Automatic annotation (TrEMBL):
Heme binds at residue 350. CDD domains: CYP110-like. InterPro entries: Cyt_P450 (IPR001128), Cyt_P450_E_grp-I (IPR002401), Cyt_P450_sf (IPR036396), Cytochrome_P450_monoxygenase (IPR050121). It comes from Mycobacterium cookii. Its cofactor is heme. Pfam families: p450. Belongs to the cytochrome P450 family. One of its GO terms (molecular function) is oxidoreductase activity, acting on paired donors, with incorporation or reduction of molecular oxygen. The lineage of its organism: Bacteria, Bacillati, Actinomycetota, Actinomycetes, Mycobacteriales. This is Putative cytochrome P450 138. Keywords: Heme, Iron, Metal-binding.
Length: 403
């Protein structure tokens, strides 16, 4: 996409197998038009992750069904509810970093993956004990396999239990059995009404017509939250460590700030990591209307439109010296609303954005308080595609000393 944008500019079309005819845009005005279009005009891009997650996933829904599901999902991911999860994140971070080696470089990504997985399993699934242990075992290999298969069309049969598709079916069978146990345990909890995990909130909430979420939709949606929230946040944290170890001035200032209750610079740093090392490089929509007017063009029904988020993040008109890692650019200034888009935009903007931001803030604060990160003048790590998210190729390697 970057090479084509260099050649053809900030709007071009191409034909991609599986997705069909596509228009790619990397201009803030066009991005705004795409993200603010009515949901009956632009729906979610097809195919999308719901092929793997199930028809009950929010990714599969459009129009009213999508709006209603978002209403149901939004409360646990906002303001007051988020506060409840902070202590879980801090606990998981402390547990993980207790094992960090000192003085030798190691990749942080496996650690950040475990922290974000455990955080979601506890805060979202409300899992504990044996169910938590089993989920911890099956999810990492399942997500790795699922990410690799995400862009490959589903075959009409599974090719046996040892084929990738057969293994995906088996993971799902084990996962469903655990979710049944979790639901039964939650319902049996005498304190069920006061539980704050997202599963309990889903079990307690109802749609506008009074109906509850079905068992299948709950399973699909929990899996969606896990798949969407785990690798993305972990990869961004991996990049954060990679960036900080190469920017001593920022690191020194962040360490000093972490001693205080402030987080202005840490927040600006998170925004800058998300700009300069974007882990989800694009968000897509599909034209449902007979045509969609976009800038000077009319995009026909059946086309998909991709907003190249990563490309927008390198736009020198939006971000001066875009190649420079400079958190100061976001101190005291909000990022441009349709230029800084790591969470996509509009009605489908990431439902977990506030959760992810809080999680990254708490993980960074905890690490900065307990360890000195050694700096390096090694070149930046290259990008590695895990299928959905882009991670630092060497896993965000750093060397640390306990403070
Ligand atoms: C740094 C971490 C994260 C990044 C970069 C990220 C990025 C994104 C992006 C780009 C989208 C597509 C938005 C669009 O189409 O306009 C998205 C959607 C979504 N994200 Fe995230 N995400 C992150 C963390 C999370 C977390 C922690 C959760 C939940 C626990 C989550 C749940 C979701 C869900 C459910 C959607 C689908 C929304 C819909 O279709 O209505 N994400 N995310």
């Amino acid at each position: 996409m970057f090479k084509m944008a260099d050649r053809y500019g900030d709007a071009f079309s191409l034909h991609v197998p599986i997705y069909g005819p596509l228009v790619v845009v990397a201009d803030p005005k066009l991005a705004k038009q795409v993200f603010t279009a009515a949901p009956d005009v632009l729906g979610n891009i097809q195919p999308n992750l719901s092929r793997l997650l199930g028809s009950g996933s929010v990714f599969a829904l459009d129009n009213d069904e999508h709006r209603q599901r978002r209403r149901l999902l939004a409360p646990p991911f906002h303001g007051k509810s988020i506060k409840n999860y902070e202590s879980i994140i801090e606990e998981e971070t402390l547990r993980e970093i207790a094992e960090w080696p000192q003085g030798t470089a190691f990749p942080t990504l496996p650690s950040t993956m475990r922290i974000t997985l455990n955080a979601i399993l506890r805060a979202v699934f409300g899992a504990e004990g044996a169910a938590l242990d089993e989920l911890r075992r099956i999810i990492p290999p399942w997500v790795t396999l699922g990410s690799r298969m995400a862009m490959i069309p589903n075959p009409s049969r599974t090719f046996g239990r040892y084929s990738p598709w057969g293994r995906l079916v088996e993971y799902r069978r084990r996962y469903d059995a655990i979710v049944d146990t979790l639901i039964a345990n939650e319902r049996a909890d005498p304190d069920f009404e006061n539980r704050t995990d997202v599963l309990a909130l889903m079990l307690r909430s109802t749609y506008e017509d009074g109906s509850a979420m079905s068992r299948k939709d709950i399973g699909d949606e929990l899996l969606t939250l896990l798949a969407a929230g785990h690798e993305t946040t972990a990869s961004t944290l991996g990049w954060a460590f990679e960036r900080l170890s190469r920017h001593p001035d920022v690191l020194t200032a962040l360490v000093a700030e972490a001693e205080t209750g402030d987080n202005e610079l840490r927040q600006a740093t998170i925004l800058e990591v998300q700009r300069q090392r974007t882990v989800i490089d694009a968000a897509g929509r599909h034209v449902h209307a007979p045509a969609f007017d976009l800038g000077d063009w009319s995009i026909p029904h059946g086309y998909s439109i991709i907003v190249s988020i990563a490309r927008l993040h390198t736009d020198a008109e939006l971000f001066a010296n875009p190649d420079r890692f400079d958190p100061q650019r976001f101190v005291g200034t909000k990022p441009p609303s349709f230029g800084w888009l790591p969470y996509g935009g509009g009605a489908r903007r990431c439902v977990g954005a506030v959760f992810a931001n809080m999680e990254m803030d708490v993980v960074l604060r905890t690490v900065l308080r307990h360890f000195t990160i050694e700096t390096t003048d090694a070149p930046g790590e290259k990008y590695h595609s895990r299928g959905v998210a882009y991670t630092p190729k060497d896993g965000g390697r750093i060397a640390v000393r306990r403070r």
